[in-house]
Design goal:
globular, 8-stranded parallel beta barrel, 47% helix, 249 residues, alpha/beta, 15% strand
Length: 249
């Protein structure tokens, strides 16, 4: 990719390809050509397009976040982490709710794959804390976890750090508390980012891109404000511009 004016900031934007088929995803990728952002491949697209599309994105020079949120018995997650690492992704995740043994198994699977193939780069391994669609009422009354959402998120983050993970997925609101408890080098990857005036849809714990960066979050995951925009490239560039204005502020 040619040098982009806000390259360092663009690498902190993760565009979520929440599409049902690969052709729609390719159309967006074509529109974003030259912007060195991360691309997030979630369950819907991965189950439809498979590993070959991930390889295609890597060949085009994109950073890839494979968002499959593994949550299973430790041995199964270890195997999944091994396979995902061999695929060559740059970031993938597990559910922190699976516990320390499961997260440590994911680390072990990743490290095994790296030891088997020296050409692989070590991906970032992160843990999902509480989904940004989860309100405190839902967490308390339906999931059955008492207390405040932020307290649960921070506790999961501490558990992930103790398990050897690189960071967590959390709403932008909890980023500062996570950094305070886990250190500034522990990464926060934040969905629930919505530009001012955009539709919040099913998200409940949200923040604008500029505020999310100013709060110290490391990566911003943005889907529909870009993918559903009349001009996705313009929407992405506007978000990157807003992010760049708040870096280190």
């Amino acid at each position: 990719m040619s040098e982009y004016v806000h390259s360092a900031t663009a690498r902190r934007l993760i565009v979520a390809l929440d599409y049902p088929d690969v052709e729609q995803a390719r159309q967006l990728i074509h529109k974003l050509a030259g912007i060195p952002c991360y691309i997030k491949v979630g369950m819907q697209l991965f189950y439809a397009a498979g590993p070959e599309f991930v390889r295609e994105l890597k060949q085009k020079g994109y950073y890839v976040f494979l968002d499959l949120k593994m949550h299973d018995i430790p041995n199964t997650v270890k195997g999944g982490a091994h396979s995902i690492t061999k695929l060559g992704v740059d970031m993938f995740n597990v559910h922190a709710a699976g516990g320390k043994q499961m997260m440590q198994a994911a680390v072990a699977g990743m490290e095994q794959a790296l030891s088997e193939d020296s050409s692989l780069n070590r991906p970032l391994l992160i843990a999902v804390t509480q989904l940004t669609s989860t309100s405190q009422q839902v967490m308390n009354e339906e999931i059955g976890i008492t207390g405040k959402v932020e307290d649960t998120v921070v506790r999961y983050a501490q558990l992930a750090r103790e398990s050897g993970l690189d960071g967590v997925v959390s709403s932008p609101l909890e980023g500062p508390a996570i950094k305070h408890m886990c250190g500034t080098s522990f990464l926060t990857i934040t969905p629930g980012v919505r530009p001012a005036g955009s539709d919040v849809a099913d998200q409940t714990r949200i923040m604008t891109p500029g505020r999310a960066i100013a709060a110290g979050n490391d990566y911003l995951v943005v889907g529909r404000p870009i993918t559903a925009a009349a001009d996705p490239r313009q929407a992405a560039e506007q978000i990157i511009k807003e992010m760049s204005e708040h870096v280190n502020h």
